[in-house]
Amino acid sequence: MATATSESKNASDHVVELIVRDASAPSSEESDSEDKDQIAPLLSQERPKINIFTASYPRTKPRAEVTRLLESETSPFTNFILWVWNGSRYSGLLCMAFSSTIYFLMGVLTNIFSVQAIPLFETAFTRCAITLILSYLWLRWSEQPVFGTSQVRIILLLRALTGCISMSSFIYCSQRLPFSQAIVLNSTVPIMASIMARVFLHDKLKVADIASLACCFFGVLFFFREALATEGYFVKAKEASNAHAKTGHHIFAILLGLFSSIMGGTSYCLIRAGAKASDQPMLTVFSFGLFASPAMGICTYIFEDFVLPGFQSILLMLVNSIMGFFAEVLLARGLQLERTSKVANVQYLEAGLRQLCSLALTRLAPSFERLVGVSLIVISVCCTMYIGPDKETE
């Protein structure tokens, strides 16, 4: 409630207006003071000066900083594995070198801890089954399609088929031929792979590659020259003494060994083609395990008697199977990154390491043939690593 009274004086022209307000209503001065008290903290803050130099823009961290951050969060061993896998221009050669080293270690473990004779097809079945399981888990963990895209499935199928034929043929050959002859025939796989890569993939086959492959193969021949001569003499003596022996069986086994090498070389080319087309070398390993596991199981059931392995034999088979899985993955990665004829030469590193290990463990003086063979392989592999990858594959 408010009333207004006005008084006019004759002596003055001024008009005085009296306004009466309710006591409960706040005065305008008090409300203004309250508003000023609330606004004052906001007005007291200095307004930041913004220009094109002081404005903050969202930016990503530099690549070097991100790399250092990742390296600080991972262990040195993990950093080394990543560097070997894809962190160097020599990654293709390094993957193949580590693959050959793992195969060499598998042979060493077998020679030291083997206490029971396990049939070859049974051993191959175990290794293929473990490879299938591990490769499937790897693909599921990395969220990759298990069977690949439709464009590469035919390549993966052919890779699995040729690899399985090569393995089964070599097992049959090694059971019918002396050990040294089977090893020499298997040593022609890198040569066949280089020839097949030149024919089907149109890879370059340089003079240096041919010289390196020939040097390594002659090194293997030097290893087994004496054994080949001795075993050949015994084979001829056995055939001469046995009236029912057929020379055709021996020739058939040799031809089957050469066929195994051709199939193995073709499989290498398909591994390279499938890994490059799918950008995932693990698919080639999985496809081989998927096809070879039931095939080796059938061969074990048909051609051999099943042998129940003991605990130590089972443990050795599991360890060798896991190591073989990583060796195959590194092999596929090396073929994916580098030319077949160049990385195939590095595979002879396994034979050289075996001879060096035998020379170190035996107390006898090394023969001249072994020294020459080891020298040829070591020099050839070192020259390949020194020359490095081609410029177009960096």
Automatic annotation (TrEMBL):
**InterPro entries the record matches:** EamA_dom, EmrE-like
What sequence ranges are listed for the domain EamA? 92-224
Q: Per UniProt, what is the membrane topology? A: Multi-pass membrane protein
Predominant localisation class: membrane
Q: Name one Pfam family in it.
A: EamA
Question: Which top-level group of life is the source organism from?
Answer: Eukaryota
Enumerate the UniProt keywords alphabetically: Membrane, Transmembrane, Transmembrane helix
Where, by residue number, does the polypeptide cross the bilayer? 93-118, 124-142, 154-172, 178-200, 207-224, 251-271, 283-303, 309-332, 371-388
* Cell compartment(s), UniProt: Membrane
Q: Which GO terms describe its cellular component?
A: membrane
Family to which the UniProt record says this protein belongs: Belongs to the drug/metabolite transporter (DMT) superfamily. Plant drug/metabolite exporter (P-DME) (TC 2.A.7.4) family.
PANTHER family noted in UniProt: ACYL-MALONYL CONDENSING ENZYME-RELATED, SOLUTE CARRIER FAMILY 35 MEMBER G1
What is the name listed in the Swiss-Prot or TrEMBL entry for this protein?
Answer: Uncharacterized protein LOC106765003 isoform X1
Source species of the chain: Vigna radiata var. radiata (Mung bean)
Classification from the root reads: Eukaryota, Viridiplantae, Streptophyta, Embryophyta, Tracheophyta
